[in-house]
Design brief:
Strand content: 15-25%
CATH topology of the largest domain: pyruvate-formate lyase- activating enzyme
Strand order of the largest sheet: 3-2-4-5-6-7
Shape: globular
Radius of gyration: 24 Å
Bound molecules: S-adenosyl-L-homocysteine, iron/sulfur cluster, FE3-S4 cluster
CATH class of the largest domain: Alpha Beta
Structural class: alpha/beta
Number of helices: 14
Largest sheet: 6 strands, parallel
Length: 497
């Protein structure tokens, strides 16, 4: 097996081998630059007998990391000669880029894979693939091999650059090709991405997570924290600016840990460097952890004019005992003090958070601490979840006497409180003129344009689609819980109505 894996990794394995591969463990994280041509040259698909190109669809679940990985995989597929498909029936390759963070995300994927089975009968050339965080779970690998054998290829989060070869092997194999690495062997640079958006772009600054919150599967699916080199990040941002991108979002599970593994650079220093790149107008980042949100970072946020006034700062719970059992490394008091420091340093900052209700054994009183914290902080928005036990995480073994019906009721109570706060915060903007970076037509209503404020509020207004990519002034007229309806008050020079 080792021999076969070595051959496969070195690109010496010929298509058609039809081998099921197990997990293996590369353990040195080196940074490798890959030439896209080298990655794809042996795996060109050409065209079908009809002269039509081969087509792909990637179905993406989960966080921005996954959205961004999808752009990388789309880049690889396009370099192989694949083109995007508009619908499942037209696709020759359907890939599920999955999320494992909660059980319902996983259930959705298995449901979809089941639903697509008949397509395989109709189109024997169709290849089905599963990648992303679910693929890293041993239980999922076993389940796919045993219960969903019509899935042709499974690979993980650490070897997405191997997609061209794995897909080629899968096309010629009768058996499921499974190649999942336990650890990242290399931080792969330079794979061109087929980015969805030309105005906003995601930029990875860090992969993995070392925090091991007891409920969370991410450290297991994404591996240890690894920072990209600042020069690689800056080069990417400079290229994006040259391509006309206006807003970048720096991505990592704990961006404020950025650089700890490199030694010479901090996230604050990186932000200052990125802030100096001409052409970029807005810099966002996600996610930051309250625990090591340093004064140096707060100062950098206050100083850097392009860094927006929005911080996503997941609190998870307002109760210290629960936070301790979550291994969150911050207390309620620490969090509240941090919020004060941030609000003092960055006037008008909008704060959003993540909250889990129904953690194993959470009492009514402990839940009320969360509600009280939400009332006290007055978040602009919160992503709220019912605790979902995850395979092999410590919390999955904690005793839990809270019935699901009670957890659901708590989620609803929390949401009611937060929705009212979100609405009140938005209503306070009525009549104000805000800067909106126009993203294009609204996805839900093509009659209006959509864009965001620096504080990440979605604004809808009427205007010419030619304004896309520009920052315009909009007066907020009808604030709602999730959106702000407004009217354009100023057009940039040279743009006609
Ligand atoms: N790195 C980020 C979070 C990434 S996961 C951070 O630490 O802030 C996104 C969110 O999913 C988490 O903030 C948490 O609220 C939620 N989450 C993670 N694991 C969960 C689980 N097992 N059940 C319910 N929600 C969970
Ligand atoms: Fe999960 Fe905690 Fe890491 Fe966030 S910091 S990804 S919640 S382990
Ligand atoms: Fe989900 Fe993986 Fe992101 S588990 S939240 S897709 S890191």
């Amino acid at each position: 097996m080792e021999n076969l894996i070595t051959k496969l990794r070195e690109g010496r394995l010929q298509p058609g081998a039809g081998i099921v591969f197990g997990t293996h463990r590369p353990n040195t994280a080196v940074r490798t630059s890959f030439d896209i041509d080298a990655l794809t040259k042996d795996y060109q698909v050409g065209t079908k007998a009809s002269g039509e190109p081969y087509r792909y669809i990637i179905k993406t679940y989960g966080c921005q990391m996954n959205e961004h990985d999808t752009e990388t995989m789309a880049g690889l597929l396009q370099a192989m000669g694949y083109r995007p498909a508009k619908e499942d029936a037209e696709a020759d390759f359907i890939l599920f880029n999955t999320c494992a963070v909660r059980e319902n995300a996983e259930d959705k994927v298995f449901g979809e894979i089941g639903r697509l089975r008949p397509l395989k009968t109709r189109n024997p050339e169709l290849v089905l693939g599963l990648c992303g965080c679910m693929a890293q779970e041993k239980g999922v690998q076993k389940m796919v091999l045993e219960k969903f054998p019509w899935v042709d290829v499974v690979f993980g989060t650490h070897n997405i650059h191997r997609l061209p070869q794995l897909l080629t092997n899968a096309r010629h194999s009768q058996e499921t090709i499974l190649e999942v690495w336990d650890k990242a062997a290399e931080t792969v640079e330079d794979i061109p991405k087929a980015r969805k958006d030309h105005i906003r772009a995601w930029v990875n600054v860090q992969y993995g997570c070392n925090k091991f919150c007891t409920y969370c599967i991410v450290p297991y699916t994404r591996g240890a924290e690894r920072s990209r080199l600042p020069e690689d990040i800056l080069q990417e941002v400079q290229q994006l600016a040259a391509d006309g991108v206006k807003e970048i979002t720096l991505l990592g599970q704990n961006v404020n840990d950025y650089g700890v593994d490199l030694g010479s650079v901090t996230f604050a220093k990186l932000l200052r460097q990125v802030n100096d790149v001409d052409g970029i107008e807005r810099i966002r980042f996600t996610t930051s952890n309250p625990w090591n949100f340093t004064d140096e970072l707060i100062q950098a946020l206050a100083d850097c004019d392009k860094v927006v006034e929005h911080i996503h700062l997941p609190v998870q719970s307002g109760n210290n005992q629960i936070l301790k059992r979550m291994n969150r490394s911050h207390t309620r008091e620490f969090y509240l003090e941090l919020v004060n420091k941030i609000r003092t340093a960055i006037p008008g900052v909008s704060l959003t958070t993540d909250i889990i209700v129904g953690f194993p054994g959470e009492t009514e009183e402990q839940f009320l601490d969360t509600l009280r914290l939400v009332e006290e902080v007055q978040f602009d928005n919160a992503f709220t979840f019912i605790y979902s036990p995850r395979e092999n995480t410590p919390a999955a073994k904690f005793p839990d006497d809270v019935p699901l019906s009670e957890k659901k009721a708590r989620l609803q109570r929390l949401n009611e409180v937060q929705y009212a706060i979100s609405l009140a915060k938005n209503q306070a903007l009525a009549g104000q003129v805000v800067d909106v970076l126009v993203e294009g037509e609204s996805k839900t209503n093509p009659d209006v344009l959509a864009g965001r404020t620096r504080t990440n509020k979605l604004v809808l207004f009427q205007g010419d689609v030619g304004l896309t990519g520009q920052t315009v002034s909009v007066r907020i007229e009808q604030p709602k819980t999730w959106t702000l309806m407004g009217t354009l008050v100023e057009r940039p020079e040279g743009v006609l109505a």
